[in-house]
Structure formats: structure tokens, C-alpha cells
Amino acid sequence: MTIQEQPRPRQYGNWRRPRTAGLLSGMGSGGTWIMIVGLIIVMASSAVSLTLAVVLALVLFVAIILIAWRDRHGMNTIEKLGERALFWNQRSKGSNVYRSGIISKIPGGHRQLPGLLAPSSLYEFPDSFGDLFAVLHFPSTDSYAVTFVSQPEGGSTVDQNQLDDWVASWGVWLAARGSESGVVGVSATLETAPDTGLRLRRQVDARMDPHASEFSRTMLRQLVDDNPVATPRITGYATVVWSGSPRPGARKRTVDEMGTYLATRVRQLAASLSDTGAGTARVATKAELCETVMTAYEPALARLFDEARVAGRPYELSWDDAGPSGSEAGWDYYRHNGAVSRTWAMTEPPRSAVRETALRALLSPHPAIERKRVTLLYRPMDPASGAREVDRQTKEADAGAGILRRQNARQTRAQAAAHRAAEEEAEGAAMVPFGMLVTATTTSAERMSDLDFAIETISAASRIQLRPTYGVQDSAFATALPLGIIPSRHGKLVGTLGRL
User: Fold this and answer.
1) Which helix (H) or strand (E) holds 32?
2) Which residues of 332-356 are buried (b: 16+ CB within 10 A; e: fewer)?
3) Looking at 144-148, 221-225, 377-381, 471-475, which range is the least confident one?
4) Residue 466 main-chain phi, psi, to 5 deg
5) What does each C-alpha distance from 295 to 118, 194, 310, 391 come to in angstroms?
6) Domains of the chain by range and CATH?
7) Which residues of 80-97 are buried (b: 16+ CB within 10 A; e: fewer)?
8) Helix 50-68 vs helix 28-46: angle between axes, to the nearest 10 degrees?
């Protein structure tokens, strides 16, 4: 009898940050053109005044230094100054502070959602089986988002073949969204939060045998009391965003037309998500989406919702009242309804190949973080656009290698990665730009330093590089919610968040 060999774990990688070629490392094509035009101006001014030419040359030299020098997150001084300027402008106008309710200027005294979510509207439509599902509309970008909710399956007792199938199915699912008409974005969110234990207590009390021994009953009650601490609640979300126009130049569809179209799609999408290891996925209803957003802005509401659900008391939620009563966006924090949050953006994916467990430390519950939300943002591309993007990146990598006579290890690796991506795309792989946001929330401002240390530790274990979204913490907090906000479609976002 031969012992069956275990399959060798697969590795994944070849991620690279898109860059444009430049004369100097870190300048890119934009900085190179600034340098060329500046040199022409300096040479032309020398015919008028030598002093003027020297002054302009010094100014050009300083500008080149500010553009070319980048920190470990890939940010140059100009981009950092842009972050500061945007935040100072918002703070000077008071737009970083939000107040709602009866004492605010909001009509009707509603608790309207702030920032990027303010102009959004939430609708509900029946699907092909008559079940209601929520559709979030963003008029500013003419986009419609549908959110799917699931309880992800764990991988601790799953064999390697099943894990490989889940990863492959997720890749196929993402690639299919790029070929689907009108899809402009996809996000995947995993949220960990403390469980109140109220629902478990109700189930145990209802099923407990009244004739059981006192020892058994005491043991069950003790298990229920310890469960909220030992077992945090883990919820998965997947959000698909469609454009109101099915293709460029086409007529924009109305809300009712989009609801009719999406009603034919959501069931199939939920079923296909179950093949990716997400568990049984369902489409979020209007009440579920309102509860998710309200709990994110005010974590203390989670227990009230569970108490009402366990007691069987019906409650109605409105999107117009889903926002916080007050919030304040600081340079590196976001204060909202008795809680403080900080959001980080990924600036560098793992440089080497990793296994499917690479993000386990980042996704798992952490004892120092009360609530944590990890969101992956994807921008699916159709096959034709993906092929053009791969060709462009390959040409940029070759051009950058040709400009510099002596290449360092990173430039050589970037060129090789670009050529590998071109080969994979030619073999049928999809091109999917992606980003990541991580939000940590605590109810005590004194614990913010603990959050920083915890996030730094688990991000290092996951071999990714994170940077706080300075100056746009309120926008980053909203983007990390499973609501379908696409940063690249909002022109006011700068810095790290604007790249996603």
C-alpha cells in the first residue's frame, strides 16, 4: 500500500505597482516632462539674463528633488504637500466636522450619512424569486452597488485541494466581472467584531432540556457567558458596482431600469460566490445594509439590535437616519459617535510569492482591536483593456530599463514581472488592479497607540505595507464599508487613497 502524497501548496504573486518610465528613478513620465520643459525654459532665459537663468535652474533643481525622492510608501514630497493642503482647506472651512439631527442644518433633522455617502440613495427591489434586495445608488458617479453577505468558511480543516479550488474560483469570479457589461468595481470585506452572545443565549435557553442535571445546565450557561469573549463575530461581504450606462456613449438607465436588470443577476452571483469558500451568500436587504452602516458609525448599537432581534421586537431603519449624530475627521483619526477609528491603505503588496494563507494574520480577530474591517478593492478590466494595460506596462518597464544603463535589483525584478504578466495574460489570465483598506475601531481614544502597534505587527506578518490615509480618514472609513465606493471615480481624493 502506497501512501498518497499530499499536493504541494501553490504560491501566488507577481503583483507590481504600475509606474511610468522616467529619466531618474522615481520621477515617472510626468516628472521627466517637467524636467525637459524646465531645461528648455532655463536655456531660453539665459539669452535674456544669466541671473534669471540661474534662479530658474535652482527652482527646477528643487522641483526635481521634490518629485524624484520618494519614501518607502512611494509618496513624493509634492503628493504629501497635496495631502496637507487638502486637509488644511477642509479644516479651515470646517468641513471635517459633521453634526446631524434636530440641532443641525439638515432638513427634517435627519441623521444623514456624511461625506462621500451623503448624496447616496438606498432602494429595494424584488429579485426573480420575489425576495427583496438592496441597491445603493451614487448619483455623482452614476453607479449602483449590490452587497452580498456571507459567513465565510474556515480553512483549518479543509484539505489543500479544496483550498486551491476556492482560490481558483475566486479568480474566475473576478475575471467574469470584467467581462460583464457595466461592472466598474468589486470589493470584498471581512469584518471582525465582538459578539454580544445574545442570540446564542436565546438558542441555548430554547433548546435546554428542563429535566437535565444542574451540572449540565451550569456548564451550558458558562459556555454561553464565555462565548462573546472567545468567539468574535466574523462577517464577509462582497459588493459589485455597476455603471448606469452599460457601455460608453450609451443612454443612462433609470433607477427602476437598473433594479429590473439587477433582479435577474443577483441570484446567480450569490450562487457563484458560494463556490469561492464564502459560504452560503445572500443578497443584503435594505434593513441589513442600514444596520451594518449604523453599527459601523456607532458600535454600541450592535447590542441594541441583538436585544431587539432576540426579543422579537420589530424595528424599522431608514437610510436617511443611518449616519452618525456627530463626527470629526482628524489628520490620522476619525471620531464618530463614541468611537475612534483609523484607516490604513496598502502601499506595497507582498514582493515575493505567498501562499493562500498570507493574509490570515490580518484577517483574523486580534485581542487588541475591538472592531476591524479589511476591504479589498478591485477594478475588473475587460480582456481587451487588460491586454492593452499589460502591453503598456511591459513597454514602460522596458523603457525604464533602457533609460538607465545600470539597473538595480528592483528594476530588474520589475521588468521580469512585467514580462511574466504579459505571458500570463496571453495564456488567458485576467488583469485586475486592486487595493486594500484596513480600518480599526476602538471605543477608547487612549488605545489608539495599541491599534497602531497591532496593525503594524499583523501587516508585517502578512508581508504587506500599510500607510495611514492622512487627511482623508472620513472618506477612507466610508470607502472601507461594503457599499461600493470606488476612490478612482471621486476626483477630490488624493494621496494613497486616490491611487486605489
Assistant:
1) helix 28-46
2) bbbbbbebbbbbbbbbebeeeebeb
3) 221-225
4) -115, 150
5) 17, 12, 17, 44
6) 108-194+232-380+432-498 (3.40.462)
7) bebbeebbeebbeeeebe
8) 170
